[in-house]
Amino acid sequence: MFNTIVLALDGSEASRRAIPIATELAQRDSARMVLVHVDERLATAGGPDVHPDEADIQASIRKQAEQLSEQGIRTTVEIRDVMVGGPAKLIAEVAAEQRADLIVVGTRGHSGVSGLLGGVTQRLLHLAHRPVLAIPPPSE
Q1: Which residues contact 39 (CB under 8 A, 6 or more apart)?
Q2: Where are the domains positioned within the chain?
Q3: Are 10 and 110 in contact (CB under 8 A)?
Q4: Measuring CA to CA, how many Å separate 135 from each of 93, 97, 105, 106, 120?
Q5: Predicted structure pTM score
Q6: Tens-digit pLDDT profile for residues 21-63
Q7: For the residues of 21-35, what is the DSSP string, one character each?
Q8: Topology classification of domain 4-135
């Protein structure tokens, strides 16, 4: 049974695929959900965003939080800034701060790092001191 579920979202199709699964688990267990987004920057704090559509991504995540709340799921949003390459560490930190029972993440996102799982997901599996549920792409 889960009390707190962290759902990592980056605006990609892979992260959107994780939403229904995290939602189902939260509804089943009456868990609260924390939507985590890491705003990657090209330089120091206040530098330009890695993704030119960052404002749209954040707006979409906040709208998703509203929709989840309307479904009766206690939902909050955590948005953190980091220089390129550090989202996994911040996701793991938020999960620890929130005492999450589970982190849900898509297997490939917006990160430029390639691999079977995706760079952020793979790093998260090594860093997080919480269970991580990685949602794969649909089979074709």
Answers
A1: 49, 54, 58, 79, 80, 81, 82
A2: 4-135
A3: yes
A4: 20, 23, 6, 5, 13
A5: 0.87
A6: 999 999 999 999 999 999 887 766 666 667 678 899 999 999 9
A7: HHHHHHHHHT-EEEE
A8: Rossmann fold (3.40.50)
